[in-house]
From TrEMBL:
This is Malate dehydrogenase, mitochondrial. Residues 25-167 form the Lactate/malate dehydrogenase N-terminal domain. It comes from Phaedon cochleariae (Mustard beetle). The active site is at 199 (proton acceptor). Its EC number is 1.1.1.37. Keywords: NAD, Oxidoreductase, Tricarboxylic acid cycle. It catalyses: (S)-malate + NAD(+) = oxaloacetate + NADH + H(+).
Length: 335
């Protein structure tokens, strides 16, 4: 778990000595935003990062200057505007994308498609050219469509390696762990709930039957907890009342996921993290499931595993919605 890995490194950042291995360039696209800034902060204190490249269309020099004063090894550079994008992404090992507009109350994630699809497409076009080996993690919504857009762009450029493109659904797992821990009076760091499917509403499928430690709930409680996990993003959008969506918890989740990618790149074995990827485990061509991460990204897709009847039913409802979201992304990328 990220928490278990990050905490000791937070303590030891000053004593960290750069070895040849712990030497990765991470680029953040959308680095000046609500997610981008705290995410960049967490990456700056990650000892696996030697170079932090911050790209946005506004404010990047200031964010980079601010972060660069932190006493950790990662060298921080800010790149402002599309004319500097190629330089920002060049030879990146990992690219994390939280660029794009967030929801306001009353909007669905799909309502962001018209604005965000083009942003993600142009970032992917540049990544295909200057960082074809990078592991790309997409935070931008709608994630269910944004990942197919990036894959289609890479495919057109002849650069697609499906092991290297991820929709970051980690926040769904983080929330599931937190909510279940609260219900059972457990420490959230000891709880792990796999979440599969996609990243919006009914496509989010928490596998509470596979919780560690094992937990059980009466049927009505199981249903209400599942709905709360599926609608947790909307809970934050409503609470922020027009000021955007989850940023701080997403920065945590994004940093946890980036750290897992880096641990895999760094040769650590048994790094397992669910994400939304190109997939053949269901009839939807993209699907989130637990993955073993390694030096080339996905080493193994662990698939669905056993589902309870309740979870089978959730899966049945999610697939048509996922397919629709995926088709929209594929169509956009190819038009
Ligand atoms: N995957 C997930 O679980 C979550 C995804 N999100 C999504 O993350 C995205 C970002 O959210 P926030 O940070 O709150 O938004 P924000 O508006 O605070 O920040 C977005 C940043 O993207 C930048 N940007 C816009 N166009 C760009 C371009 N062409 N190139 C580079 N940067 C560009 C903006 O200048 C801004 O700094 C939204 O689409 C939101 O829905 C949010 C929470 C969770
Ligand atoms: O709900 C939103 O718009 C942002 C998001 O994806 C989340 O918080 O899960």
């Amino acid at each position: 778990m990220f928490s278990r890995v990050l905490r000791p490194s937070l303590i030891s950042t000053r004593n960290f000595s750069t070895s040849k291995q712990n030497n990765y360039k991470v680029a953040v696209c959308g680095a000046s935003g609500g997610i981008g800034q705290p995410l960049s902060l967490l990456l700056k204190i990650n000892p696996l990062v030697s170079e932090l490249s911050l790209y946005d269309v506004v404010h990047t020099p200031g964010v980079a200057a601010d972060l660069s004063h932190i006493e950790t090894a990662a060298k921080v550079t800010g790149y402002n505007g599309p004319e500097h994008l190629a330089e920002a992404l060049k030879c990146a090992d990992v690219i994390i994308i939280p660029a794009g507009v967030p929801r306001k109350p009353g909007m669905t994630r799909d309502d962001l498609f018209n604005t965000n699809a083009g942003i993600v497409k142009s970032l992917a076009e540049c990544a295909a050219e200057v960082a074809p080996e990078a592991l790309i993690g997409i935070i931008t919504n709608p994630v269910n469509s944004a990942v197919p857009i990036v894959c289609e762009v890479l495919k057109k450029a002849g650069k697609l390696d499906p092991r290297r493109v991820f929709g970051i659904s980690t926040l769904d797992i983080v929330r599931a762990n937190t909510f279940i821990a609260q219900e059972k009076s457990l420490n959230p760091k000891d709880v792990n709930i796999p979440v599969i499917g996609g990243h919006s509403g009914i496509t989010i499928i928490p596998l509470i039957s596979r919780a560690t430690p094992a937990v059980s709930f009466p049927e009505d409680k199981l249903k209400s907890l599942t709905t709360r996990i599926q609608e947790a993003g909307t809970e934050v959008v409503k609470a922020k009342a027009g000021a955007g969506s989850a940023t701080l918890s997403m920065a945590y989740a994004g940093a946890r996921f980036a750290n897992s990618l880096l641990r895999g790149l760094n040769g650590e074995s048994n790094v397992i993290e669910p994400a939304y990827v190109m997939s053949d485990v269901t009839e939807a061509p993209y699907f989130a499931s637990p993955l073993v991460l390694g030096k080339c990204g996905i080493e193994k897709n662990l698939g669905l595993g056993n589902l309870s009847d309740f979870e089978q039913d959730l899966l049945k409802k999610a697939i048509p919605e996922l397919k629709k979201n995926i088709e929209a992304g594929v169509k956009f990328a190819n038009q």
